[in-house]
Amino acid sequence: VQLVESGGGSVQAGGSLRLSCAASEDTSTYGCMGWFRQAPGKEREGVAKIWTNSGNTYYADSVKGRFTISRDNAKNTLYLQMNSLKPEDTAMYYCAAGIATRCRSLLTLGGNIWGQGTQVTVS
Fold first, then answer.
1. pLDDT per position as a tens digit, 82-107
2. What is the pLDDT of residue 28?
3. Over the chain, what HEC string results?
């Protein structure tokens, strides 16, 4: 399975972006998917995850209330709606899929497969 992110770009503070992560195949065999980000000189941060079967979601405190993760199973696509963007949200954003045993710790351990990333810049 290959994951391809899109939707990044430059936006002013307070603006919005929607990231997409298109999978080349059905990802329902993975227990969960998530979004991660990494800014230059900083460690990777897991920002949101969604469980495949239940659709339950979890967010890092840094994005809670501003970001929304969702998925369209028919399109094999994961989304991240980002509102009220702040300069500190500037980073490369990656999507990842995790097997079931990884889902509880997905945002700290990372996924089993990754996309190539899309840049988000907030000024």
1. 999 999 999 999 999 999 999 999 99
2. 86
3. CCEEEECCEEECCCCCEEEEEEECCCCCCCCEEEEEEECCCCCCEEEEEEECCCCCEEECCCCCCCEEEEEEHHHCEEEEEECCCCHHHCEEEEEEEECHHHHHHHHHHCCCEEECCEEEEEC
